[in-house]
């Protein structure tokens, strides 16, 4: 019997059976009360995960569509500073470049963002800041509270990519001064790919552009979203809404603090294994930056290739991620997002450990160290 | 036992069990060969339905997103003529207005488009024509071959909304001179809502704009779509792709000519019932225009309200559509799209007939007339 592969990558993640089953029912009218109630309930849960009382709407599109909605509606023709220390920061800057005048503040991938340069740009009149909160390409968590504070101080808008943090790590949109935040459905929420949720604060609504795209027009989402029943402006991806609704029900059942604690424990377990193996974590941190709690990036030890490592792990039916772009062959990444728990972590670390030991690059028992962390 | 409602509206339509079941499997890697093969096979079937040898890509978004992709990439800053004789023509014009200079050629909803005025606009230098092929808001089919011929004659691009015709009626993109055509997943294809497919011909590719949106950047779709495995530029709505793939397998099994013939027969049956009842069809036709074969619009007879009509039909678990905007209360619409057949048509017409007879506005047996048509 062939098992379905276990995806331990930084998204998409395994989808709980209940969530998948929610998609099997017959089409329902997306202008009716049942759809509206599901939409509204999903929004309620998501607001808790975002840490916000702001309006929040769901777009039928990927996380990138959500980010583009933020830029195209609220940063058009503006001076934008894009903080970049990984692939998704880079993508966010590329989206911004389609609409505004962008200054990219580049750091080596996986190294701290330069907050001093950010402040100088804000002093020089930058109107919008973009940042990826949790940069899975490098396993680093960026300092949202500090960036939010600086943006507020200089009256700039702060647009945050929370695609891989929201739902798995602590996010406090309102407390941190984030004006626009976006999450994707297929990461920590453990729903299928294809939806993005975007929360927008009053400071952003006050500055909405006159010129807006059509499908990603946030004024249209607001208009349809405020009605009864709650609706989307254009035909939504109905099965994905029903799936995300069920995923949010599961999140409500677990409770947000427990969910965040579980994600932290899973990442702690992976880091404990790495320490026992003597495998270096990839990111370089400072006092403002931390290791990601939803994706851990590790250096591939000398004496082992990316292909051998991931190929051997895959023989056990488990997929972990390699490095992207110039990090290909240099790092590997283990996602610990969504509904997975001790079973999946232990299996994954055991498969990695088998590969490391076989290649003679690690001797000590990282799995045991991780197991200890998982039991708390 | 409460039945799932039968949606006999102009989309979304009932989704076959096989198609819904395709969404229940675990998440698969959307950068892998299995996803790529499903995408490529789906594209192959869709090209047959579009009547095209052009490149065709699938966007995770609604039909409106597909239309915006056509406009934003290929009509930006251009002189656009938008033909309008219904709600979706109007929406297409509104999308066009976000990107170019638009002349709207307005006809009363459900009446013929003015091809003479179109030719004058083309002679005056219009560069792009937009038209909805099958205008479900009014039950009219617009003259794609004639518009294509005029656009070619004057070297303009022709962008056609085929959202509710492709897969259910005869469409010959290449033969008719359509440069860009779009279909939605939840109409004649009988898949869930949430995907749009867009086919783009060489004349359009040659004129692609330098300035493009990000999520709907057709150059990005082309780049990812030409690789092996076939990919999308951003994370796709994986379950919806798998569902559409299964829907296309069903279409291949039925065969395209048989599918189109079935749609025609269903619409013929509805029209035969209307004639027997003495209920007027809504559209006014000329030699270039025809009744829609996927959605029939009928005038609500005197002595009956929209609420009574649709409310009574709904008591049988069947949803038919009312009029939109200024046609609300004046017409009702029966969708005959996708996987439905004689069972659904007979049930729907019987429920409508019951309501008409109860109100004393029709006496004759439209169901019998329809049944005769269905048996051929």
From TrEMBL, chains A, B:
Q: Which GO terms describe its molecular function?
A: alanine-glyoxylate transaminase activity; L-serine-pyruvate transaminase activity
| GO biological process, any | glycine biosynthetic process, by transamination of glyoxylate
Keywords from the named record: Aminotransferase, Pyridoxal phosphate, Transferase
Task: Tell me one Pfam family matched here.
Answer: Aminotran_5
Q: Which domain of life is it from?
A: Archaea
Database matches in PANTHER family: ALANINE--GLYOXYLATE AMINOTRANSFERASE 1 (PTHR21152:SF24), AMINOTRANSFERASE CLASS V (PTHR21152)
What family is this protein classified in?
Belongs to the class-V pyridoxal-phosphate-dependent aminotransferase family.
Output this protein's name: Alanine--glyoxylate aminotransferase family protein
**Which organism does this sequence originate in?**
Methanoculleus formosensis
The organism that produces this protein has a lineage beginning with:
Archaea, Methanobacteriati, Methanobacteriota, Stenosarchaea group, Methanomicrobia
């Amino acid at each position: 019997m062939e098992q379905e592969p276990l995806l331990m990558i930084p998204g998409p993640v395994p989808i709980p059976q209940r969530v998948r089953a929610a998609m099997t029912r017959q089409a329902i009218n997306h202008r009716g009360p049942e759809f509206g109630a599901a939409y509204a309930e999903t929004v309620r849960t998501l607001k808790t995960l975002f840490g916000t009382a702001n309006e929040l709407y769901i777009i039928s599109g990927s996380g990138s569509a959500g980010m583009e909605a933020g830029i195209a509606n609220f940063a058009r023709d503006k001076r934008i500073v894009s903080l970049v220390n990984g692939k998704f920061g880079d993508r966010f800057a590329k989206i911004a470049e389609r609409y505004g005048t962008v200054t990219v503040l580049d750091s080596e991938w996986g190294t701290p963002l330069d907050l001093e340069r950010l402040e100088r740009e804000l002093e020089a009149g930058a109107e919008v800041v973009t940042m990826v909160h949790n940069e899975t390409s490098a396993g680093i968590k960026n300092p949202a509270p500090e960036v939010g504070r600086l943006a507020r101080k200089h009256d700039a808008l702060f647009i945050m990519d929370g695609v891989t943090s929201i739902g798995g790590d602590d996010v406090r949109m309102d407390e941190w001064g984030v004006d626009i935040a976006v999450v994707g459905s297929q990461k920590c929420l453990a729903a299928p790919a294809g939806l993005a949720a975007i929360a927008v604060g009053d400071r952003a609504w006050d500055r909405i552009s006159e010129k807006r795209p059509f499908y990603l027009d946030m004024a249209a989402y607001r208009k349809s979203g405020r009605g009864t029943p709650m609706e989307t402006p254009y035909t939504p991806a109905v099965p994905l809404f029903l799936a995300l609704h069920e995923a949010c029900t599961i999140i409500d059942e677990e409770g947000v603090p427990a969910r965040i604690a579980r994600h932290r424990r899973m990442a702690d377990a992976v880091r404990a294994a790495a320490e026992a193996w003597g495998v270096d974590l990839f990111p370089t941190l400072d006092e403002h930056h931390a290791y990601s709690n939803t994706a851990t990036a590790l250096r591939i030890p000398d004496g082992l290739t990316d292909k051998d490592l991931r190929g051997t792990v895959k023989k056990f039916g488990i997929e972990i991620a390699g490095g992207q772009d110039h990090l290909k062959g240099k790092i590997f990444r283990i996602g610990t997002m969504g509904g997975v728990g001790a079973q999946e972590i232990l299996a994954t670390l055991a498969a990695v450990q088998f590969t490391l030991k076989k290649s003679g690059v690690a001797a000590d028992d990282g799995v045991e160290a991780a197991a200890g962390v998982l039991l708390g």
